[in-house]
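User: Could you check the structure of this?
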Amino acid sequence: MLAIATTTDDDGANANNTAAIALLLAAYVTLEVAFWMIFRNVLVPRYQKMRQPDDYRVGRDRSQLFLRILERLEVAALAEGGDCDNDGNADSAVLPKLEAFVREWFYSPTHVAEQTLIQQRRSSYLKQPWNVAATAAAATTTKSQNKCSNSNGVPDTFKARKDDMNEFFAWAFFALPYEQLKQEDWMVQELERIYETLETRHSMTFEDGTSAPHFRPMRLSLDPLQPNHRPLFIYILFAVLNIVGGIILRCTGVSYHRT
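Assistant: Sure, the predicted structure tokens are below.
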């Protein structure tokens, strides 16, 4: 009788444990579904929403802000080697560096999509080591992509055009799409001064037209976000790590300051 009673008690405990685990799993799945809905319907639209940028410290004098950046590029170009021209401008040294700087702010939408697909294929190839032909094809594609001057798929021969630079400068110095910039006379004047500075100092001009859809300028605060959903557990894990890390830093005498 004692043995029978013990077995019955064990079965009851196992059933209770199973029910508790099932309840916890159901609660977690419910939380994940709720978080996914909040992520898609609340968080993503909130972060996609445009907001008015803070005032620039230079006020409306955006061409002066551009000139300061250009002067830093000139200094960097001279430091890497190169001579100034007769007027004291580092034209021969700066122009290649300036063109390379511009290229870094452009990307190929096709290249970015292909790189994403290649990464997905590589993941599947790791699970299928016998797929030698497909793996070799992926390697060949990757080598051909590496001929580009940067990771965004823009070749060394790329020359940005006027419409491309309008979009880029409108974002970089006015935080606006070019269509909105054209509605403000003072912005149009400042943009023209930027072009005049480039032409006067380095004889740099841009052909009319656009490179789209093959190449586009990056506008980090204007282009739509492409967020990827992650399980709620990942966010909780990093939040805990952040809290623990902050406690450890405070215990070692580090204090938090916000500028």
